Amino acid sequence: MARSFTLSPTLSPSVRKSMSLIYHFAERESKARYKRSLLGWFWSFMNPLTTVVVYGFVFGVVYGADAPLTDNGNAENFGLYLFTGLIVWSVFTGVVNGSMGWLIGVSDLRKKIYFPTETALLGGAVANAVQTLLEAVVLIAIMIVLANISWTVVFLFVALVQVMLFGLGVGFIVSVFNARYRDTQYLIGILLNVSFFLVPIVYTQQLLDDNDVDGIIRVLLDWNPPALFVEIARDAMYFLEVPQWNRLLAATAWGVITFSIGWIYFRDQSMAISEEP
Amino acid sequence: MSAGSIRVHGVSKKFRLERNRPSSIKEAILRIGKKSDADDFWVLRDIDLDIEPGSFFGLIGHNGSGKSTLLRLMAGIHRPTTGTIESEGRLSALLELGSGFHPDLTGRENVYLNGAMLGLSRKHMAASMDQIIEFSGIGEFIDEPVKIYSSGMYVRLGFAVAVNVDPELLLVDEVIAVGDEEFQRRCMSHMNKLRAGGTTIVLVSHNTQLMAELCDTLGWLDHGRLMKVGDPADVIEAYLAHVDKGDNTLTTHD
What we know:
The complex is a heterodimer. By secondary structure, chain A is mostly helical. Chain A has helices at 2-7, 13-33, 42-62, 78-110, 118-145, 154-180, 183-195, 205-210, 215-223, 225-239, 245-273. Chain A has one domain. Chain A is globular and about 60 Å long. Chain A starts with a helix and ends with a helix. By secondary structure, chain B is an alpha/beta fold. Chain B has a domain at 1-22 and 38-89 and 169-179 and 200-248: Rossmann fold (3-Layer(aba) Sandwich), CATH 3.40.50.300. Chain B starts with 5 loop residues before the first strand and ends with a helix. Chain A binds chain B through residues 1, 4, 7, 13-14, 16-17, 20-21, 23-24, 28, 106, 109-115, 180-184, 187, 271-272, 274-275, 277, and chain B through 15-16, 18, 21-26, 28, 75-79, 90, 93, 95-96, 98-102, 105, 112-114, 116-119, 121-122.
C-alpha cells in the first residue's frame, strides 16, 4: 500500500498496525485503572508514599530494625530500603498477573476479529511502565530531598527494563496456560507470594550473613532473577554504588532470554487461543 | 496475486470437541497419553477455492456445514489444520453479532479499536466517523458502552464500520438478517456500491433467493465438503434438490 509507505517510510504497515493497537490497549488499561475515581493519577503517588511511611514505621519504629547504611548516611530508613525493592518487584508481579488478565480480556474479541494478540500484553506492559515511572519519580524526588542521589540512578532504569523483559517473558507463557486452564492464575498467585520471600525486600543481605545462611539456599537467594533486579535497583538508588558487572550481566541475560522464549512460545500458541471456548 | 483475491488450497479444519476437553490442569495431567481421535471433529475437509478480485461470492449450506468456519479461516481468526489460505488486500469482516466489539468500550472507542485492528490510523477513522454514525443510525448512543446496545444496534454499527473502511475484501456472515427491512436494504445497496468499486465480497446466507440476486458465484458446502461451485442458479438447484431428497432422513443429520 503506497499510502502507508509515504506516511511512514521506516515502518512496515504491520508494525504500524501493532503499534497503534499497543497504544490503544495501553490507553485502555491506564484509563480503566482510575475509572470512576475523582483524583485519578493522584493515587499513583499516594500508594508508594504510604508504603514508605507505613513500612518505615513498622520496621523502623515497631521492630526497631536498623536499615542498612546509605552512601551519605542521610537516608537510613527501612521504608526507603523497602520501596526501592518494591518498585522492581511490583513490575514483575504486575506484568505476570496482568498478562493473564490482559489475554483473557481480549480473547472474546479475538474470536471475532483477527489481530496480533501480543499487542494486548505489550499494551498492558506499557501502562504498567508508565505507572512504574511515576513511582520512580516519587522515589527519586525523596532521594533528592534527602541528598542521597548519584549518577548511579541510571541503573534503576536498567533494572526496570530487565525486570520488565523478564516479567513479560514469564507473562507470555503463563497467559497461554491460563487461557487453557484457569487454575493457572491461582497457582501463579501462590508462587508469586512464596517467591516474594526469595527476594531481599523485607529482609537485608546483612541479615542472611548474620544468620549464616549459605550453601545452595544462599545461591538461590542471591542469584534468582527477581533478586538480581532488586539488588541492582538497590545499589543504584540506596547504596549509590555501581552494581557488580557479573550481576548486571546475569540480570540482562535472564531478561533477554526469558523474553525471547516467552515471545516465541506465545507467537506459536496464540492462534490456538481463538479456538478456546 | 492481486488485491482482493482469496485462494483456499487443500484446507481442512479440525476442532476438538468441547465435552472432551480438559478444563483443569489436574484433568489434563490425568489424560496424558490417553488422547484419542474420537475427540476431534472435522468441520471442513479438502476445500479448494479461488475467489477472484471484484467478485461477489456466496456460500450456502445447511446449519453446521462449515460455512462460518470457512469464513473465519478466510478472516484469519483460525488457522487451517491443513492446507493454506492466502488473501491479498485490506480485509474487513462482519462475522457475527458485535463483530470485534469490546462490550465495555463506547461505540466511538470501538470504531477506533476496529480501525486500529484493520491498520487504519485514528485520523483516518476520525474522518469516517460521521459517515459511520450516520450509516448506522446509532445517533447519540455512539458515546454509550456497546453492552447496552440492542442486537440491531450492534449489527448496524458493525456493518457501518466494516463497509466504511475501504475494504478490498469484505466477509459478511448472515448478520444483516438481524437488522430491520430498511437497514437490510441499505446494506444491499451499499454492498452493491462496494462491488461496483471493485471490492471482493464473500457472503454467507440461507436465503437462496437473496443469494441468487446478489452473487455472481456460489459455493455449496455440505458436512464440511465443497459440493459445487459455479453459477448461482445451478448451485441453488443442486442444493435444493439435495435438501428435498434428504427431507425424510433429516433426523440422521442432527
